Amino acid sequence: MASMRDIKRRRTSIQSTQQITKAMKLVSTVKLQKARGRAEDAYPYFTHVYEAVTSLLSMSDKLDHPYLQSGQSEKAAVIVISSNRGLAGGYNSNIVKKLTGSTLKKENVKVYAVGGKARDSLRNKGYEIAADHSAVMEHPHYADAMEICHEVLEAFTAGEIGEIYMVYTHFKNTVSHIPTMMKLLPVEFDEADAPATDKRLLMNYEPNEEEVLNLIIPKYVTSLFYGAFVDALASENGARMQAMDSATSNAEDMISDLTLKYNRVRQGTITQELTEIIAGAEAIS
Amino acid sequence: MADDSNLFDLEIVTPDRVFYKGKVSMVEFTDQDGDIGVYKHHIPLTTGVVPGVLTITVDGVKKEADLMAGFAEILPDQVRILAEVAEWPDEIDEERAVAAKERAEKRISSHSSEVEMIRAELALQRAIVRLSVKSHK
Predict the structure, then answer these.
(1) A residues 32-51 near B, CB within 8 Å?
(2) B71 lies in the same domain as B97
(3) Most buried one in A134, A227, A263, A272, CB count within 10 A?
(4) What pTM was estimated for this model as a whole?
């Protein structure tokens, strides 16, 4: 049986860990609220851009545009959005699993990493890391999304990559975050998502459809990136909050367990001491 | 009260917020071909927005703001502008705009590479728009 001192030491150690997890939980709760607000603010823009793109594509299927066809290259760029810090439960490993479990072949994937955790893990698995923008996750800004979008689209137009995917965690609500993989280019959309075309049928495009497409597609991709960044940030903090919450309550359980053990051992020692004293006293008399 | 029949819905959305949403009688902004003013019953049009001054007229009162690259979707009774940046005059950081203007001018006069020239020109354009909106206030 462990000695009193050992148990006490272990209990103190768990207590201080618990303080840390408790503090981290509070911090991530605050961060979650902020991130969630930003995600909600970004949502209208994203929805409207998506609507504009789908309505444009739904009526111009004749368009022969490079952004609408897969390139010659077999390679696919995958933007992987994870976090820079750990202690967020399965948040980062779920992202990595989403990619490794996909139909994409490892040798055809070029990873554009946003977030250090998935970057390291994918590098260890032998994926090619084409670019690393992990610093963005500290405070994602629309300009960051523009920069990455520019870089990826350039590679797409140059024929280095034929498809663009994105893996991120969608923040559904505080307790549910869904790792998601979506295809950005060539643009694919659900016919059912297209807005009612009646009043849009007469839409004019200035100067013409192709030019407008040239303008809108980069904005569409950028807005998806930005949306995914803020979404992922909310998910990250949500995941961390949950992880820290369960860590705190686990620590609570362990502490009460150890306290019980400690008291038993203490009682045992006292009983033993008493027995010894009584036995000693009896021996003398 | 102004006649309601001349009003249409205007919605200006940027990545970080809904900048403006409401009924207006006219909106003016700059597109690829120059300045464009939109009243109700405009023909449906989708066009690219370039950095310029945005003027919203409601009940005869004009409100100005700056509007950076994006695109506009115009329908007879509704206009939706999706822009990367839109700011009211009191949100503009004048010092920053002046500094950006000087920096851009310096770059242009030093004849750097073509890409840098384009960037500098765009930056200059943005700075000029910001300053002009600020000074009109």
Answers:
(1) 38, 41-42, 44-46, 48-49
(2) no
(3) A227
(4) 0.81
